Write the structure tokens for this entry.
Amino acid sequence: MITLSINNCDVEVEDGASVLDAARKAGIRIPTLCNFEGRPAQGACRVCLVEIEGAKTLAASCATPAARGMNVFTNTKRVREARRTVVELLLSEHDGDCTVCNRNEDCELQSIAREMGIDTVRYPGETARGARDESTPALVRDNAKCIKCRRCVTVCSEVQSVGALFPQGRGFDTVVGPAFALGLDGVACVQCGQCAAICPVGAIGEKDDTRSVWEALDDSSKHVVVQTAPAIRAALGEEFGYEPGTLVTGKMVSALRQLGFDGVFDTNFTADLTIMEEGTELLTRLKQALVEKKDVALPMFTSCSPGWIKFAEYYYPEYLPNLSTCKSPQQMFGAVAKTYYAAKIGRKPEDIVVVSVMPCTAKKFEAARPEMNDSGVRDVDFVLTTRELGRMIRQAGIDFASLADDTMDSPIGAGSGAADIFANTGGVMEAALRTAWEIVTGSPLPMENLHVAPVAGLKGLKEVSIPIRGAKGDWAFLEGVELKVAVAHGLANARRVLNAMRAGTADYHFVEVMTCPGGCIGGGGQPRLTDNDVREKRIAAIYKEDEGKKMRKSHENPEVQHLYAEFLKAPLGEKSHKLLHTKYAQRVKV
């Protein structure tokens, strides 16, 4: 540990901490636009300048190591004027009309400018040349708003190991975007939206589908239903000033009813359905490998996360057979809504509009995949992010805080606690183990409070070996087997797993991959800004939701049981195979 002085107050920090880290520990705010939690400092924006006694020039606090005996000043006249000039120069290049930007009041540049008292741009001149990229179903880029902070480059290259975005050119002519001035559809972009979640301004964001949803709601000939992913209930409140991790499930349902949806359902229902299909698929593969001695693709990977699927299609096509054939819960819901539910209410599939509220921008891409139409029409019509739903609620003039709690509709709206934890990294694995263990042994999973602690938490790659004891009947062959599972979140960690498999150093039976850090609670469509503190609070809220339910296992869901009895007949059966399963193909990288 070392001690330094910041604004004449002593602060003790670990050796290797930056001046910015020390200031934060002391409760002193230093503004920054390029800083990225957990990543090496770039010092690119120069907004975090501080004065260090004895130094000739001001220093970027994010990139300056704290030193023993250092005297730092964060609020001198010299510092204030330098920071103000830096921000004014950024504003002079920023082609931003705040009045029509969807980041208005949610823009870090705007907030810092207001904080510094900047009410005019002293350096008028040429602004960045606009080149709007709307080439993908999920994301929109607007170079005219880019301030070249390079946060998107960091998250794309280092956190997701995709590398779809690069700074190109020099000085004023620098452009941050795909290589060769291509659109995002021309490079190996997985459309995860982490770039949109980390961008401090409006240079990249989700493609806004709110107008299309309003038009559907206004069309009296359509029956418009909405499904909400489990991660939404722990994050939507942040759009209305609630603390991260505040559960707003009931208020969310009330708001959706007031918006005019004809049915409000829970994606948790098809998360439970996914466990029934995916768990059966895993057990079937294990039987084929261990008993029938067939050449089966193991380990089996989860297939709920569309950014991960696209990543595998681009970078690891040899492992596509290892992906579960299950569609994601979002797509399963669309297929069930336009077949089973449509028949229940006497409507044609083409007259039903399915809207999803998801924490993920890649869900927009997934809904548009051409193979997602096994109901005879497009399974899911529109996808809204958490941020878009927040905008729609505000547009409707709904006072979210005053709403009474309401409950989801039936018959496709009930979900278990196991489905809730799909929102968290490790949640799909835990939900699958709860059901698979009980199928194999006839007894509950022997874990404290039904949780599998080794697969929980924010460690990037989690591995656990579970010895199976008490296997019975058709599954007796699993007695004594060490079930080896892994959980990865963030695509750089998925790459670690796949590279180890390529090298022959990894040995698993089942692997969960979530595209975004923390899982869906950290999705690219969630309220900004998502750091680890926010992730942990949302994760805790989701576990609280799970633990508060009497029904905590997917196979106990009576509505899922009824769906099989009345419609699907059996997991992996002919009808479920047609509606709930799919396959994937290699994509070509530029």
In short: The longest strand covers residues 482-489. DSSP finds 18 helices and 18 strands in the chain.
